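Q: Joint fold for the lines below.
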Amino acid sequence: MERKSAKTKQHRKRVATCCLSNQLVSHHHHNLYSIVTETTVPHLCSRCNLSKLNQHQFTMANDRFKYKLEIQQMMFVSGETGEPSPETTGIIEDIVRGQVIEMLIQATAQAARRGSRSISTDDLIFLIRHDKAKVSRLRTYLSWKEVRKTAKDQDRDVDTADLVDDSAAGDALKMRQKRAKISLPWEVASYFSEQPPEGDDEDDEEEAEANVATLARLKSADERTKGMTKDEYVHFSECRQASFTFRKSKRFREWAGFGSVTDAKPNDDIVDILGFLTFEIVQVLTEEALRIKDAEDKLQVSNKENDKKRKRDRFLFDGPGEGRTPVEPRHIEEAFRRLQRPRAKSKAMRNFDGGGVLKTRVGLM
Amino acid sequence: MSSSYSSTNLRVQILRDERSRTRTNSIDPAETDKEEPIDPLTAACRARYERFEKAIAAIFPSRRPCCATDLTVHELLGVEEPSDQDLDGADTSLGLTNGVGGGTPVVKATRAQEDDDYDMDEEDDAPAPTSLPPPPPSVQKPRSPIPPTIHISSPDRTKSPSGAKDSATATREKLEADKKAAEEAARLSFSTMFYTLESDRDAMLDQQKLDESDRQVNAEANAQGAPGKLSNANLGASSLTLKHLIARIDAKRERVAVSDMELRNLMSEVKKNRSKWASEDKVGQEELYEAAEKVVLELRAQTEHSTAFLNRVNKREAPDYFAIIKQPMDLGTVMKKLKQLAYKSKKEFVDDLNLIWQNCLQYNADPKHYLRKHAIAMQKMTQSLIPLIPDITIRDRAEVEAEEAGAHDQDADAESDDEPIMTSRMNRKAPGTSKAKKGAKPARTESTPEAKPPIVNIQGIPDVKARDSPVPAHVMAESSFLSQNGFGTPPPAHTPSNGYISQLDLESTLEKYEVEDDLDLEYKTWKTMTKKSRARAASERHKLFRAGKIQLDEPALIRGRVGLGRFIRSELAHGDKEAAKDIKAPLAVAVEEQHDEEDEMLPNYYKVLDSVPELPWNLAWLGDDDEEIDKYNDTLRMAPKGIFTQPPAGLARSMDSNMKTMQETRKICHKIGVIKQMQVQTQVYSNQFAKYDPQEFVEKEPEDFLISDDGPIMSGEVSKAAFQRSVAKLFYHAGFEDFQPTAFDLVTDIAASFFKKIGKTVMLYQETVLPTGKFAPDEILLHTLGENGLEIEALESYIRDDVERLGIKLVQLKERMRAHLDDLLRPTLVDAENPEAAEEDMRHFINGDFTDDVGDDYYGFKEIGLEREFGMSISSGLMRVLQGRLANSYQTQSSINAAVPTTEYKAPPPFEPLSRDLLKDQIGLVQNFFLAKLHANSEEPLIEDEDLPIKQRAPKPRLPPTGKITTPRKRPVSGQGGNSKKKKRPNPPPPVATKPPPGGSTAIIAPTATPPLSEENNGLAPKFEEKEMDNTPGMMSPESILAV
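A: Joint structure:
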C-alpha cells in the first residue's frame, strides 16, 4: 500500500517511504512528537536518500520483499551503521520468513500431538525452550505486553467510570499491573495438581541470569547512544520500534503464509510472539554478520598493510576516505550458515548407525 | 551316527587303547601257516608295521607306564625313511599298512581266522614284539582255551545227528556251551578288528522299524478285545496259586490302565514257572508257541532282510498287489495270529511263514528285483529255523487225558517238557530285564542265544557237519560257531554255513553274496551281534545331533554305572592302580558287581564317555540323587551386590532427594485438593478420597544368584529391568507421576541403544593405538562424549539447572504449598481464644496425615450447629474448616459476633398490632391508609410484616452486597409501568399495616421520605399504590379484592 502511493505521488512518496515518517508521528504522540520537527525529517530522509533509487527499483523488481524498511531499522539497532542494500535485506527477509514458516509448521505439529488443531503460545515457546535466555526475554516481553494491555483497558475503564470508584479501581489496577508471570507447562509448578498463590518470594535468579545477554545488549546500545545527538537518538529509538507485526498483523499473516501453513488462525498472541522472535532473528543474524565482516575487514587491513608502500599519501582535498561499508549479502549468508550448523546433539543417535549425511530441517534461530 | 563322527583322532585313540592287543594280533598274519612261505615281502611289511605301531605310541604319548614308549617322533621319522623306500614295491598288496597309515574305514586284519592267543593277553609284553616276527610255531600253541572247547563240542555235534532224540538234553547243554564259547571267541576277535560307524545308521533305522512293528502288533492285538477277565485267560496251571491275585485284579480291572496282553505278560512273569502261552486246557500249546514266537522274533530281527516283510503290504504302495496275491501274509500278521492263539500246529505256522516269501517271489517275478534277494534270504533263514520248532499239534487236555492210558514214552516227553519250562523261565528273565532297563542299560545280545538252544529239537545241526569235514579243524570250528551264533542273534542271511545251502538247493542264487561276504565273516557276525547296542548308541547320539545341529535341550550323555565300571576296568587294564584307587571303594564294588552284566560287544569308541579319563574338574556331584552342585566350590561364587542398583553417588543422591521433595509436595497438594473439594461439596464421604501415601523409592537388589567366573554378568533381562527402573526414575524426576508402558519401553530401548554406542566408542578408543601411545582414560571419555554429541557444557548445565536448581525450586515450591495449606486452614483460628494452642493443634493437624482419620465424626458435621451457638472453640473451628462451608460459616459467625454488642441495649417493645382503636394515635396523613387496610383486613388488627407467617410475608427487599440501592432497580420499575403492579398482585397480600413506628425507625421513614419513583423496592411499592388508592377512595385495592 505504502509503495503504491509512493509510486503514484512523487512528492509524498519521499516522505512516505522514508524510514521513519509515518511511524514517528503515529507512535509517539506525547513528548517525542515535540522533538520531531520539520528539520529532522529532511535529515532523516537524506539518510535514506542514498538508497532510494535502488530501493524503488528493487521493490519493483522484487515485489515480494515487504519489510525492507523494518529490517533496515532492526539492523541499525543491532549495530549496523551503514546502509544495507536491498539485496541484503531481501536475503534477511527470506531467511526470516523461512524461520517463521518453519516455526509455524513445527508448532502446528506440536499442537497436533497435543490433540489440538490450533497453535497455542506454549507450542511456540516450546520450540525455543532450549534457549533459556530467549525464553526469558520472551516472557518478559509477554508479561509487559500484558501489563500494557490491562493498563489500556484500565484507561478505558477509568475514562468511563465514576470518579468515585477511582481509588478502588486504581488499587485493582495496581494489583493487576504487577507483572503476571507467564507460566509454562514444563516448569516445576506444573508438576503438581495444585498451584499455590503467587508469592512474593519468587526467585528471579534464573531470570536474572538469562537476562545477562539482554543486559549486555542494552549496555552496548547505551554505549552507542551516548554520543548521539538528540536527532540521532530519536532516530535510534524510532528504529527500536521496528517490528514485523506491530500494527501490520494482516500484512504479516499474508507474508508468512499463515493460511497455507496452519489450518487454524493463530491469534494475536502468536503473532506478537512471532514479531518478537523475528526481531531476534534479524538481530542475531546482523550481529553474526557484523562479526564476520569485522574479521574480514581486519584481514583486508592486514593485507593492505603489506602493500603500504604503494599506499599514496592523503591530501587535503582528497575527499572522504572509505567509510564503513554496510553488511553484504555474503556476510548474511555466512552468518546464516554458521547459525545453521547442526547441533552436536543431533548426531547423538547416529554414531555407528551410518549416515554421516544429516538431513535436517531448518534450525530455528 | 554319521560316519564323520569317526574322526581319525578318535580312531587313533581307540587304536591306542587296543594297541597291545592289536599288536599281538598283528603278528598273527605272519604266524599263519599259509603266509609263511611268502617271506621277504612279509618280513619287510612286518618291520614296517612295527614302526608304525611305535610311531603311534610316540605321537600320542601316554603317561601310563604300560603304554609308554621311549621313541620320539623324530627318531621315528628318521628310522622310517629308509624302510619306506625299501618297501615301496611291496606296499600296495598289503591291507595292513593301508589300514594303519591311510585310515580306510574298515581296518581288517587279514589273517587266518583261528583265534589265537587272547587268553595270553600279553600286554606286558607288548613293547617286546618289536623284535621281528615271532616264530610261527608258537602260534599253534597259544590258540589255547577256546578252540579246545570247540573241538570238544563239535564231535558231540557230529554225534548228535546220528544219535537219537533221547540225547536232546545233552545236545542242548553242548549247544549252550558252544554258543558261549563262540561268543567268547567272537568277542575276542572283535577286539582285534576295527569298525566304523558306517552301518550304524541302518542299524538304528532298522531297529526303529522293528520297534514300530512291535508296537503295531501289540496295539492291534490289544484292540481286538475289550479287557477281558484274567481268570478266563490262559494263564496256565499255576493260575491256581495266583487265583486271589487274579480275582482281585479282575475286580478292579477297569482301574488298571494296562492292556490285557501286557497284563498277561506280567502275570506270566510273576508266575515264573510257566510261559504266557501256557494253557491248562491245551496240551502242547506252550511249547509250540514258545518256539514259534522265537522264530518269528528271530526272523524279524533279521532286519537287513526282514524290513519289507514286517507289515502288511499297503495297497497304496502296490495297487495291484491284491489282484495277484490272494492271501497276503506278513510277519506282523503271523505275530498277531500267534497272540490270538490261532495256530493249531507247527504246520500251520510254517505254512504262513512260507507264504510270506512265496508271495513276495510271486509278486516280484523279475529275477533281478531286490526284494527277491531278501525273500530268498529270509526263506533260507526260515528253513534253518523251522527245525527248532517242535512238531506238536495242539490238542485239548481232555483228549490227551483220554489217551493217557497209552504210551510210556510219553513220560520221556513229560520229562523233556520240564526242561523247556525251566529254560524258558530263564529266557523270560532276560527280556524282562532288558525291557525294564531299556535305555539305561543295554540288553544282552547273548540273552537270546542262551534262550534258544534249549527248545531246539536239534535236527538241523548235523547238517552243518556235512560240509565241515574238509576244512581244517579250527576253521571248521569257527564256522560252526557262526552257525551256532546264528541261532541266537541270527547271522546275516548270506552268512549261514554252507550246509543249509546245499540242503535248500539255493546255492545258485546265493553264491554271489557268499563270495563277497565270505571275506568278512567276522565283521558280519559282529554286526549282527551288536546290532541292537549299536542302534541304541546311534539313536542316543542321534538325539543330540538331530536336525543337523546340536540339540541343547537334550539330556547330556552321562557315564552311568556300567560305563564307569568299564572305565575302571580299562584303567586297571592299563595297570593304573592310582586311578583305580581314586575311585571310591563302594563305587568300585558296585562296579565289580556289575561286571558280569557289562558285556557289550561294542568297541570302546562307541562309549566315548566310558573311555575318556577323568578331567580335572572342580565341580563335584554330591550324590546321584542330589542335583545340587557344591556351592562352595571355588569356581562358583555369589554375585556381588550392587551391580543392578544405583550407586549412591552425588548426582543420584540429589536426584533422589528431589524426588522425595516432589513426593512430599504432592502429598501436600493432595491435602489441599481434599480441602478444596470439601469446600465445594456439602457432604463428604469417608471413602471419597483415595489415600495418597507415596512410598519412597528404594532400588531393590535382585535375588541372590551364582556366577561362575570373573567375567561380566550377562543377564539381559535383569539388566533391562534395572535400566527400566532408572528410566522410570528419570521420568519421575522430570515431573511425570505415571507413564504409559509403551512410552517407557521405547525410551528404555532408545537409551539402551545410546549407551551401546557409547560403549562401542569407548572400546574403539581404548583399542586405538596412536603413534604416541594409547589414549588416556580421560581423553577417551571426552572423545566419546564428543563423538556421541554430548558436550560437557550441556552435561554441566543439566546438572546445574535440571537437578540442583530444580531441587531448590522444589523446596521453595513445597514451602509455598505448605504455606498455602496453612492459609486454607487458618481463618478459623483467628478468633480462637488461645491462638497458641490453636496454632499448635493446627501444626499437629497439618503435619499429621489427616486423611488417615477421615471420618464423619472427626469433621464434626453433626456438631456444627451446636458449635455455632457456643462460639468458636479450637476444635470446632478445626472441624468447621474441614466441613467445608468455611467462608459462609465464618461470615455468619462474624456477623453474629458483630450483632452481639448491640444487644446491650434493651430491645424496644414489639409493636402492637394496629386496630381501629389504635388508629387514632397515628398521624392524620396515614390514617386513611390504615383505615383502608383495616377494612381490607376485615377489621382485624393489622399485623407487622415480620410477625406474619413466612408464607404470607411479602418478599423481602434484597440489598445487593454493596449495600447500595442502585440503578438496576430503575429499569423494571420504569419499564413495567402498570404491568409491574399486576405482577405484584398475586404476591401475598402486602401487609398494609405497617404502622408508623413511634420511635421513627429508619425502615419506615425512608420510604416515606424518598420519592417513590426514585427508590422502589417491593416493600415500598404498596405504599405507592396506597397513595393511588387514596386518590380514588371508591376503588377497591386489588389487595383487598384478593384478600376477600
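Q: Anything notable?
A: Chain A touches chain B at residues 132, 186, 188-194, 196-197, 199, 201, 203, 206, 343-349, 351-353 (CB under 8 Å). The CA atoms of residues 59 and 65 of chain A lie 7 Å apart.
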